[in-house]
Amino acid sequence: MSFSFFKQSRPKTPQELAKAVKDSLMALDSKTVAEVKALEKVNTFSSIVELLKIPLNDIRVSISSANPTGNLALEEVEKNIVTMRTMLSGDGEIEPSADQVAQLTLEICNEDVISLLFHKLPTLGWETRKNLVHCWSILLKQKVDSVFCCAKYMENHLELLDFLVVCYDNKEIALTCGHMLRECIKLPTLAKYILESPSFELFFKFVELPNFDIASDAFSTFKDLLTKHATAVSEFLTTHYNEFFEQYEKLLTSANYVTRRQSLKLLSEFLLESPNSNIMKRYIAEVRHLKVMMTLLKDSSKNIQISAFHIFKVFVANPNKPRDIKVILAKNHEKLLVLLHSLSVGKGAEDDQFEEEKELIIKEIERGHGTTGQEVMFLYPPYNILFLFTVGDKALKASIDLTIASKSESLLDNYYKDLQEFSSGLQKETSVIRQVASRAVQDLPARLESGAAIAQESLEAVGQAIDNVGSTVSEIIGKDLNFASNDGFSNSHLDGDSGNRDKDLNFGGNAKPYSRIEALVRGLQCNIRTYCDEVEESDYNEWTMGFRVEEKRKEIERLVEENGVIKEIYDEIVPKIVDEETFWCSTFIK
């Protein structure tokens, strides 16, 4: 005969559990919040209590006696949340029932329990909140009859997402809400809502909160919003480009080291997403963003310098750099080169790739400023091919010498053959380039017309430069490769018919004659800086005092008729940048 003194309670069904959770949450009142905090303090400092020989149970009893009903309700909530966690994920020995999980998910949505759980978060204890986060991550993924019930519930109660965002201001529940929010962000529709919501702007404040744990958690959520769903992010940035990057610039220039570093890394991540290619093109075309990256290159932190470089390099490598970007890079090229030469990530495989990228960027900055020697580009119209010759005998010879020294003997013969092919084609290309350039000068547009006389001299220099390249390569083959041969490079092979060079550069009988002085004057007139830059002559003030626009009207009309570019520049900068009198005064004094 067996005697049962304690009746074993029957496990709750999913419907009963959902209703029990709802009833216990509704039983909580505002006084319970203070009691929870008091109980947590008692648990935290229990060791101190023991040292003081104060009975811990007496303290708990005294706290509970203040509001026994509220405390019982809190305990009931805790018990129900633990039961819900067990039903959703099992207890370690028994696996959860798929039918029960699906039924519980459906009942929680039908009973409107989710809204209660969110709003009662400040009342719950730390352990209960942790269990709730675990349950929430499971509930969101549950599909009942091909519908994600909890996700659908959130789509119908979007204000709950705003509630979770705002809770970053409550340090008691900030981390709990952050976890639950990131679970929601995994769903594209919910992430898109937060991006478009006014509450999104609060993240720019939350990521700089003084509490490091909360600020870091807020940044994790912020990062997920900008990286989880590329298409939604692209649409958002396209629509809110100016507002977003105005706020983001504050993060990049923050006094907080962690904020600067995290925001730099995040920027490179979401800008390089393929759906954001148009955003990236727009970003790297703006001077204000380039200035921020250049400032960060000077940061005292090496890590920030490296992160800034990976964005700065995109500005420099952009083949379609706007004029303003080119001007900034040119004006600051010396300082930039000093910074880049001193920049290093350390040792290892990453260092090799970084050094390669750095060298390319350095060369591009030097090339853009014209410090790598004479660089001449020609467009060959029949095939639309861009030819680039970098002339500088010492640099060329040093480069080839270095390459040869690093290669094995078995490859030298291949180099020799390649150079032979290069020499045989170079003479033909030189002749074609001269002819094409000669024809092109006849139809120069107005802005380039003033360079005709200078172009003649430049083309002459190009011809000589190409001959110098041939001489250098010939010398390398004969001396450095020890492959002396009558069939190799020779000066005569590259010189061609030097007597015909002057004939080629005559530009034909229809070319417009220019003296060099006249060409330079027209060049100044066609340069926008002539009218925008300050004149440095000492007698300029005296000149301007006696200058009257009305007295020069006929001369102005003649100038505009002869050179249409002046009128184009006038319409562009007057009165936006300079006034009419200053413009024409600059024209005549220059």
Q: Tell me, what's the shape?
A: elongated
Q: So how many helices?
A: 35
Proportion of residues in extended strands: under 5%
Question: Could you give the order of strands across the largest sheet?
Answer: 1-2
- State the low-pLDDT regions, or none: 1-7, 42-67, 370-411, 446-454, 476-516
Helix content: 55-70%
Counting helices, strands and paired strands, the structural category is mainly alpha
Number of strands: 4
For the largest beta-sheet, the strand count, sense and barrel status come to: 2 strands, antiparallel
C-alpha termini separation: 120 Å
The overall pLDDT average reads 74
Question: Using only CA atoms, what is the Rg?
Answer: 38 Å
Pfam family, one: Mo25
Organism: Sesamum angolense
GO biological process, one term: intracellular signal transduction
Family: Belongs to the Mo25 family.
